[in-house]
Amino acid sequence: MAQVLYMALPVPAKPRKPASWSSSSKPLKLPRRTRGTNTSIPTTAKGSGKRLLKTQKLNLEVSPHRAVSAVRLMRIEFGGAFADLLNEKGKGSGENEMGYVQRTLGFRTRELNHHDLRLVTDIVGGTIRWRRYLDHLINSLCLEKDISSMEPLLLQILRIGFYEVVKLDMPPYAVVDENVELAKVALRPGAGNMVNGILRKLVVLKENGTLPLPKVEGDDRAQARALATLHSHPVWMVRRWTKYLGQEEAIKLMIWNNSEPSFSLRANRASGFSRDDLVAQLNALKVPHKLSLHLDEFIRIKTGLQIVIHAGLLKKGLCSVQDESAGLVVSVVDPQPGETIVDGCAAPGGKTLYMASLLSGQGKVFAVDVNSGRLRILKEAAKLHQVDGVITAIHADLRTLTDNGQLKSDKVLLDAPCSGLGVLSKRADLRWNRKLEDMEELTKLQDELLDAASKLVKPGGVLVYSTCSIDPEENDDRVAAFLVRHPDFHIDPVDRYVPPDFVTSSGFFFSNPVKHSLDGSFAARLWEGYCTSRTDILISLHIKDLNEIVSKFYFTRNSGRMMN
């Protein structure tokens, strides 16, 4: 559940109507066009030859990538869309993209070309990552108004302009002129004048090296606030990471989260498509790539994902976008042909599909998920990847399946719902959607799901608990609490399944974004058997070399005792 999987997603709701920039409660009238080349384009209803009464206005002077970026940012902030929303065409909502522009701005621009699409991806992702930083600068330069009362569309246009000037180093004259034009056409002339004045002021400050940024000084709280602004993260995250990692490592982590994400492709062996085949395809498409150092089916790419999508490799089921950290979690599960495996929170299905492919057509994966829509996508992906013969989808809450004896399996993977703090580089919007209060709710849910998952493990079987979080409260602490509640489970060190660089002192798998240049993730492998006491379990959590425990002792369920 924790990994990011690229496939068609439900289109989010239309953004709410923006509030007025002034203190008046009157709604903003969008749009008021005063200039630009507008051409009326008659449209027809889909599937019919009837002409609609309304026409669509085509504006050829407004920068298309800025218009689309502004609308997509509105959708993400107010409509619940994701910054990484992609389909096989790599256009977010595909053919509907200009429809959103038309409904939000009142006009259409020319269609996006590949260069425009790349700019949209860079601007939207970067603007979301640097939102707190950008808002600080906008607030500092917009002295007359607090941006909290600003029209949402105007704020998005300013964010785009500030990001282009400060982070992308685009030519200032182009940034100013084109964002001013967008504000005038989509809003009104006065909005364009305001954008013009603020952006010109920003350009001067940047050229002089005098941007109004906070200094990291004062007590811990003051330093955390300054770092949160400089590195554009919520203050609670900065304080939490400083507590667990120290300030220096916390800064490194935030720098990683703000960097351009890289992606990994997994060749689908079930369809007879090897990594060598994928390499040949990438070479033909001239997409730069590197072989994974850790997994045989994986390839890393820094750029060119749009090219891969357009070439249809994902749509044909030849490969999928999946981070190596997710693949290493599957390595911890170690699926073997003939085994039965329960994936307790399966959707959207990246790990499910990978596990199924490793069964070589022998065995069964029960994919359980509470979300019927996401489960339907998983079933379609399973068919596409030619592993539907070994996957059985079950629409249910895992916590209600504990009395189902038919699901007792050799292995159970619980890829639990989590904060996602390990994937903030790819999920740029997630940092603004998480609150500190979420952590308590999540850890409670994780405990409940772990208890439920444990009841589906056959005697002597394996339970793997994983997250895409780097937070110890969601990882090590959940395992420790579970072992106290369930003395019949104990730690099976993962050093037999993943490279030693990923193995913690407690025998768990952990990928560190800064250290490994992968998404942050965690996995604990627990096997069902008897120990002499709960004390043995708690001691084992703090012994550095768990291999010594495994080699020295043999646990047996039949005798219920620990033997040399």
From TrEMBL:
Region of interest: Disordered: 13-47
- Principal subcellular localisation of the protein: cytoplasm
Q: Name one GO cellular component term.
A: cytoplasm
- Which residues are catalytic? 468
Q: Which residues bind S-adenosyl-L-methionine?
A: 345-351, 369, 397, 415
Instruction: List where in the cell it is found.
Output: Cytoplasm
Query: What spans are recorded as compositionally biased (Polar residues)?
Result: 36-46
Q: Which UniProt keywords apply?
A: Cytoplasm, Methyltransferase, RNA-binding, rRNA processing, S-adenosyl-L-methionine, Transferase
Q: Where is the SAM-dependent MTase RsmB/NOP-type domain?
A: 253-529
Q: Which reaction does it catalyse?
A: cytidine(967) in 16S rRNA + S-adenosyl-L-methionine = 5-methylcytidine(967) in 16S rRNA + S-adenosyl-L-homocysteine + H(+)
- Residue spans with biased composition (Low complexity)? 18-28
> Which GO-annotated molecular functions does the record name?
RNA binding; rRNA methyltransferase activity
Q: Which family does it belong to?
A: Belongs to the class I-like SAM-binding methyltransferase superfamily. RsmB/NOP family.
**Tell me, what does this protein do in biology?**
Specifically methylates the cytosine at position 967 (m5C967) of 16S rRNA.
| Protein name from the UniProt record | 16S rRNA (cytosine(967)-C(5))-methyltransferase
Species lineage: Eukaryota, Viridiplantae, Streptophyta, Embryophyta, Tracheophyta
